[in-house]
Fold Polyprenyl synthetase.
Amino acid sequence: MNSFEDLSNQFSKYFNVRHFPTEPASLYDADEYFLNLGGKRVRPVMCLMGNELFDDINPDAWPVAAAIELFHNFTLIHDDIMDKAPLRRNQPTVHAKYGESTALLSGDVMLIVAYDYLNKVSTGYLHQVIRLFNRTAKEVCEGQQLDMDFEKQETVQLDEYIRMIELKTSVLLAASLQLGAVLGGAGQANQEHIYDFGRNLGIAFQIQDDYLDAYGDPAKFGKQPGGDIMANKKTFLMIKALESANAAQLKELKRLMQENPEDKVARVLSVFDDCGVNKWAANLKEKYIAEAFEHLEEMAVVSVRKEPLRELAHFLVQREH
Amino acid sequence: MNSFEDLSNQFSKYFNVRHFPTEPASLYDADEYFLNLGGKRVRPVMCLMGNELFDDINPDAWPVAAAIELFHNFTLIHDDIMDKAPLRRNQPTVHAKYGESTALLSGDVMLIVAYDYLNKVSTGYLHQVIRLFNRTAKEVCEGQQLDMDFEKQETVQLDEYIRMIELKTSVLLAASLQLGAVLGGAGQANQEHIYDFGRNLGIAFQIQDDYLDAYGDPAKFGKQPGGDIMANKKTFLMIKALESANAAQLKELKRLMQENPEDKVARVLSVFDDCGVNKWAANLKEKYIAEAFEHLEEMAVVSVRKEPLRELAHFLVQREH
């Protein structure tokens, strides 16, 4: 059994190679640049963990883990274009550095190379792996589209927002675990449990992300909190606040969002506190974590094999940065 | 044996269904809109022809043909974004109608759905099909990148231009035929011949395309010729003219490209004629067609089975519109 850290180190060794041809450099340099920005490689490690939950690591799990990481980076390159984001991991985004057209193409090519890695899976599981990977890939695109749609809507319902988060963030975490499980020979019931463990964990992770952006300790969070509030982003906290505010609080929130005063963050947070949104978010996160752990416990696997996944859950959802 | 027209009709029946979920409509309507603009579906029919050259049609050839057509449409959606093209098939492009972000995502999703279709191939050929499809898909992206690179270069060498055309246009025609051949159980030598038949035909097709844009009969061509000349596009004709012009002709060409006078098209054509570029292009096209036919003849297949491919070649490269 490997810990999260062991698997992370082993995956880095496998993954930190050149994945693209050298020519035309005007295209492939952009791909290599972006991959070299690094990242925590959480998803591929989850694939390896999902695999090791059921058996020793199947050699096919490495290319599938790489395909997942390439897919994730493909979505980041394209999302950054759509969001007109100048920075990613404190470095220029691909479109900022190489132009939008090259960013678009380098993302396309990264998705294609992800399928090169999937195609390394030996025949028995290949169909099943591509089927789950593709369903998830489409869902992630749907989540991004809904996120963009919501930006243009005046109000978003909480259940719509949760569904968007599920698609945009959770399903890839869930599918990473399940893809590993498939390659570990897991049965249908165990596959569903590990998927739902990841899905619930992903939602808890996003609740925490929204929470930290509002309430995080700048020293641990690494950046000034309040970015989402400044940008009027619809987050778990804001959607709940708009839903539960009384008339006066609602008026205050809407005025703050429109007028952007200097003390906007502090005043929005004060409304959040008055509405009990911070406590509500902490409870909601706990609810999803509890549900995740229930699925973990229900898996018909010896308990000791579940230890790294418990570690992962704590790593993901109890961090303060 | 089916004719081009038979296969085209059969493929239309197979392909003219909904390929995408209905929700979120804000994403998938864009995909359905674009597919409904139609097109000649040449590439999937080439896949079916490549298949029938060796055997009765393998049921797996239908989804592979669909994957090829979806891939082709994915490239068109993304190319139109990069080229800022307002129209495609006389209708608004996806980004013109739905915005750039949705166009980007709807292209991404179309590529993913192409792999859903590939994944319908039964196990025996799946790895080989994905390997060839992916190599080709990357090459098409490389071709698009080179095309954009060339736009920024002052001069482009003829051999560089041919390589770009090969990547951007020819390899997908070639691979469509070869994918069909793979599913028909063709051996390696025959696979290479049918690929090279398609590759050479593709270059001949592009030479003709460039030629018709300059010299086409407007009544048959469907639009006023001279578009490439007006836009200073580097085409077979222009690259050759710049290469073979004498000092006075070169000066005239460069002035025309810079000053864009009203009679630009006629005057550029007159330089083309003086340099013998029209005749050169006709000869070059014949050279590639001859090479294509050599590969066709060398295939170890009864001659009558080659008839539809001869038809196809004539359809592609002797058209006047």
The beta strands of chain A are 87-88, 91-92.
